Here is the input.
Amino acid sequence: MIKSILNIETSINLLIINTIDFINSYIYKLKNHKMNKDKKKTLEEIYGLAILNHKENKIENAIKFYNQILEKNPNHIASLNNIGMIFQQVKESKRAIFAYKRIIKIDPNFADAHYNLGIVFQALKENQKAVDCYKKTIKINPKYADAHYNLGKVFQILGKIQDAKDCYKKTIEIDSNYADAFNNLGTLLHETGESKKAIDYFKKAIKINPKHKNALHNLEAMN
Here is the structure.
């Protein structure tokens, strides 16, 4: 049986206000300098602590620091986004939805909030809501490869095969190393009688990721 990748896979990609260098330098300061406990911390310092704990999977501490930021600045989008991701991670969908909708109310053009909201709805099998969120994401940022890919997965689940194909092709156009998109497009091509093209796409997925289990399985099944 040819396999597509339709399961919901999310990773915590933290939204960092400045750059990776900011986090690295902050971690260095925490490890090499004794902080004055009596000193009132700035939002930047609290955010650094939140990110540090989040990266180390100390979820309760991270939430505590994000909440401290939100008490001082309820519109701190980075904290809302990251706390929404935590709620996603622990399957507290209602809280995650609340966080992302709050971001969208603050900034309707914040693409990541629409995308993350789509992932939550997709996990809940509220497919039309997921479609709407991914389309909004793409409208804001047409080169958002993950949004095109996930939209393709939802269309594939809904049986909208041509729409799904178009989404996977767009994903590959944006990111030529998107192995999962090659695999899923190959699956659809096989299902619609284009087996030779399907083989090519499975091979491309494997070239990008030689350990891609589904693509390896699919190519073996074709032989």
